[in-house]
Specification:
globular; alpha+beta
Length: 179
């Protein structure tokens, strides 16, 4: 079975994958918003998602995967910097980050990723607006196409910055809880 979903919130995505596993569907693959599932025993797996960059504690991707697999978990797939793991529920609870300070650091990494993508997005939008203005003077038809591209880039930027704001609010709440 294949389902389409587009998540910007790691927690919501994890919750959905775990709901699907509870219903007897194990996620096996992901690409461009498409999730592939196969039948499993209801509640057989627990899913966790993590953001991994090569500089995470000077660990290589293989070392990181091996470290998680040592907990009894299975590496399912990657998408960009995101890694998806699952573990048999009969092995007990499965959390990649068990203490508040490590969860806080995870969300800080996620925030930095969205902030950096948002900054890049803003630069692309500025370039595109300049291109639209200069193109419009030469050809209104092409200018309209450029304007449409501006709107798409702007919409994507709003989603990215909105998610960065949401993550920043989550970080602030977690920091308050740690005090």
């Amino acid at each position: 079975m294949v389902k389409f979903r587009w998540y910007y919130d790691k927690d919501k995505e994890e919750a959905w994958l775990n709901e699907m596993a509870a219903e007897g569907f194990a996620m096996t693959r992901f690409r461009f918003g498409f999730y592939w599932f196969e039948d499993c025993e209801p509640g057989e797996y627990i899913y966790q998602i993590d953001l991994f960059t090569e500089n995470k504690g000077s660990m290589t991707h293989r070392e990181y995967i091996s470290l998680i697999q040592d907990t009894g978990a299975e590496y399912v797939c990657s998408w960009g910097w995101w890694r998806i793991f699952r573990r048999k529920a009969k092995l007990g609870s499965f959390r990649l980050y068990t203490d508040a300070s490590s969860r806080l650091e995870q969300y800080r990494r996620i925030f930095r990723l969205f902030r950096n993508v948002g900054i890049f997005e803003l630069a692309v939008l500025c370039y595109e607006v300049i291109l639209t203005v200069t193109t419009w003077n030469r050809s209104a038809d092409v200018g309209v196409l450029c304007l449409a591209a501006d709107m798409i880039i702007l919409a994507f930027g709003i989603v990215i910055w909105g998610n960065a704001y949401h993550i920043r609010q989550k970080i602030k709440r977690m920091e308050q809880e740690l005090l």
